[in-house]
Amino acid sequence: MPAISMFYGILILMYFYDDKKHHLPHIHAEYGEYEASIAIEDGAVLSGNLPSSKLKLVQAWIEIHREDLIMNWKLAVSGEPVFKIDPLR
C-alpha cells in the first residue's frame, strides 16, 4: 500500500489491485485513528470517516490532482508502481 502523498497529518494511500470492494477509482486517507476510502471522481466517502475539516482538505486535494490520481489508479490496479503526488500547500 504505497503512500502517494502526505499533508497536514493526513496520509494518502493507494493500494495495488484495489478495485474489487468499491469498484470505483479511490484513495485511502488516514488521519490519526481515522481512515476513509474516498472516490477520486467526486470526493464522496465510500467507507470509513475523517474529521470534517480533514475531509474537506482531502477533497480539495483530489480536485486539484484528479488527473494524476486517475493515472496512479490505472497503475495500481495493474500492480504497477505508483508515483508521488504533491501535497496540499
From TrEMBL:
InterPro entries named in the record: DUF4160 (IPR025427)
Q: Name one Pfam family in it.
A: DUF4160
Please give the name of this protein.
DUF4160 domain-containing protein
Per the UniProt record, the lineage of the source organism begins with: Bacteria, Pseudomonadati, Pseudomonadota, Gammaproteobacteria, Chromatiales
